[in-house]
């Protein structure tokens, strides 16, 4: 996870830093074929050059960005997990558990849905 080290070290709160490192580490361990990338100052995972999932942090939450199509597809499950979301991001508050099954489902959805995608973002 060398790619993300600088990003992680810039997180002020030690518990938040540990949580973000845990989440990024889980993705890397579960999906080792995904490439790690920092873009727009945020950690992202890509597959054959196409965006799969990105993260950012704020004072109140981790933001997960799987693209709008995935959020629309998993909207009910996102709400059932107790997360707020917009059209583009899912907010996991620092005091909430990470629903790794949901996170994995979104990653797998994007990998399959974008298998033939030749651009970074969906068109």
TrEMBL record:
Which InterPro entries does its entry note?
YdhG-like
Please state every residue range assigned to the domain named YdhG-like: 16-111
Instruction: Return the protein name.
Output: Iron chaperone
Q: Which organism is it from?
A: Alteribacter lacisalsi
């Amino acid at each position: 996870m060398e790619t993300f080290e600088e990003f992680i070290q810039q997180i002020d709160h030690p518990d938040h830093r540990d949580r973000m490192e845990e989440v990024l580490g889980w993705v890397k361990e579960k999906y080792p074929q995904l490439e790690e990338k920092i873009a727009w100052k945020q950690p992202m995972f890509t597959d054959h050059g196409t965006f799969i999932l990105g993260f950012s942090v704020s004072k109140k939450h981790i933001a997960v960005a799987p693209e709008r199509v995935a959020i629309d597809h998993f909207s009910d499950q996102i709400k059932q997990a107790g997360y707020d979301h917009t059209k583009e991001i899912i907010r996991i508050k620092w005091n909430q558990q990470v629903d790794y099954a949901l996170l994995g489902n979104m990653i797998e959805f994007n990998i399959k849905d974008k298998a033939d995608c030749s651009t970074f973002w969906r068109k």
